[in-house]
Description:
Its main location: membrane. Helix 3 packs across helix 4 (125-138). This protein has one domain (10-255): 3-Layer(aba) Sandwich (Rossmann fold). The protein has 259 residues and is an alpha/beta fold. It has helices at residues 48-55, 80-92, 109-120, 125-138, 154-166, 184-199, 211-217, 235-240, 245-255; strands at residues 10-19, 22-32, 37-41, 63-68, 71-72, 94-97, 172-176, 203-207, 220-225, 228-233. The strands form two sheets. A six-stranded mixed β-sheet has the order 6-7-8-3-9-10, sandwiched between helices. A four-stranded antiparallel β-sheet has the order 2-1-4-5, covered by helices on one side. The longest helix is centred in the last third of the chain and has 16 residues, at 184-199.
Amino acid sequence: MTQTTETPMVELKGVKKRxxxxxxxxxxxxxxxxxxxxxxxxxxxxGKSTLLRSxxxxxxxxxxxxxxxxxxxxxxDLKGLAYEKHINHIRQNMGMVFQxxxxxxxxxxxxxxxxxxxxxxxxxxxxxxxxxxxxxxRVGLADKAQVYPSALSxxxxxxxxxxxxxxxxxxxxxxxxATSALDPELVEEVNLVMKGLAEEHMTMLIVTHEMTFAxxxxxxxxxxxxxxxxxxxxxxxxxxxxxxxxxxxxxxKHLGAQA
Length: 259
């Protein structure tokens, strides 16, 4: 991907990850400019979710370097409390949204959104409440502020999860198959929120099986298979004129059209 002289927001250099004898990531390089949206597609087991989880150290890589805004994420030289402090600082600058919403069932929608800013950043309750309401308005759920997760649809829960991630004012948002657990009619409401973030130039890495969404929202698209980046290009090129046979086969299957 063409870079400016500005420090990339996210950078991976030679990233490798094994689970036992299985090499899941085989030397991944990636550079993401600030304000850009990168979509990562590929079959199940290709390594794409492991790659995303490695960016915020939910998976500890075996080799390589991961940088967030010039700061190294993986720090094998740090141990104990120093390591925990470093990782907590890194994660405060990364919002992550998973397949499953992981909302606290005993907290209201608003309290789910405001918990982290209050506990981790020491934000005053009144300021956190104002921020929480602003973010719930942003995702179209201000009227659900006092509702508990059990009363929300799957799409609403995922939008709350996005608001919760945004409440930490992250530098980058990571989406790991954010719509894959949703009924088809609920997918679009979550995609619309993500499209809104793209229009605001939020840096995003998106692992998705929604090919049309990836094509429409991304600045750059990557196809992974077998732990490697098979092909990466602009979405216009990757989805319409892929160079590699593996990419062509995958897109024929998932787009239902000749790739």
